[in-house]
Write a structure and sequence with these properties.
The protein folds into three domains: 56 residues; 52 residues, LysM domain (Membrane-bound Lytic Murein Transglycosylase D, Chain A); 58 residues, LysM domain (Membrane-bound Lytic Murein Transglycosylase D, Chain A). The chain is mainly α. The protein has six helices and four strands. It is elongated.
Length: 184
C-alpha cells in the first residue's frame, strides 16, 4: 500500500511539473509574440511618419536615421532626397568604409545636401546602345564596374552588362589585374 501511494505521488508530481512547464512555455511564447508584434507596429509607425513627413516636405536636414530591416543606403537616400543617388553623401558623411555593410539599428547622419539627379540619358535604350572603347579592360586598384562602365561606354549604366558578360557572382567585388570582357 505504501508503494502504491508513493507511486501516485510521483505520478501527480510529474503531472504537476508537466502542467507548470507547459504554462511557463506558453507564457514565454506569448511574451515573445507580443514583443515582436509591438516592435513591428512601432517600425511601421516610424516608416509611416517618415513617409508623411517626406510627402509634406517636413523632413529637416541634417537628420539622424536609425537603419531598419531591409534598408540600404540607396533606400535611405530615396526616403530623404527622393533620389537614391545621394547614397554617396550618406556614406561620406558617416565615413562608412563599406557602404554595403550597414546594420539594423545603426545610427546614420543624413547630411543637408541637394538631391543628386543623374546626368545624361538613363533610359534602358541609352544603357544598351553605346559600344565600349575596347573589347577588354584590366581592372586597377579602386575600380568599380560603375566607373569602368563610364570609362568604356561613356555611361555608368552598362555596369550590369559587364557583370553579366563576365559572370561575376558579386559585382561589388572585382580584383586588380582581372581582365574583363566588355560586351558590345
Amino acid at each position: 500500500m505504501k508503494k502504491k501511494i508513493i507511486r501516485n505521488l510521483k505520478s501527480r508530481d510529474s503531472m504537476l511539473s508537466m502542467v507548470i512547464g507547459v504554462a511557463v512555455i506558453l507564457a514565454i511564447g506569448y511574451a515573445i509574440i507580443s514583443n515582436i508584434k509591438s516592435t513591428s507596429i512601432k517600425k511601421q509607425e516610424e516608416l509611416k511618419k517618415i513617409e508623411e513627413q517626406k510627402n509634406a516636405g517636413m523632413i529637416k536636414l541634417p537628420a539622424q536615421h536609425t537603419v531598419k530591416e531591409g534598408e540600404n543606403l540607396w533606400i535611405i537616400s530615396e526616403t530623404y532626397y527622393k533620389s537614391g543617388y545621394n547614397w554617396v553623401d550618406i556614406r561620406d558623411e558617416n565615413k562608412l568604409e563599406n557602404p554595403d555593410y550597414i546594420t539594423v539599428d545603426q545610427q546614420l547622419t543624413i547630411p543637408d545636401v541637394k538631391p543628386r539627379i543623374p546626368e545624361g540619358d538613363i533610359s534602358p535604350l541609352a544603357a544598351t546602345t553605346s559600344a565600349p572603347k575596347h573589347s577588354t579592360y584590366t581592372v586597377v586598384e579602386g575600380d568599380t564596374l560603375w566607373d569602368i562602365s563610364l570609362k568604356e561606354y561613356e555611361t555608368n549604366y552598362r555596369w550590369p552588362d559587364i557583370s553579366s558578360a563576365n559572370k561575376l557572382p558579386n559585382p561589388d567585388l572585382i580584383y586588380p589585374e582581372t581582365i574583363l570582357q566588355l560586351p558590345r
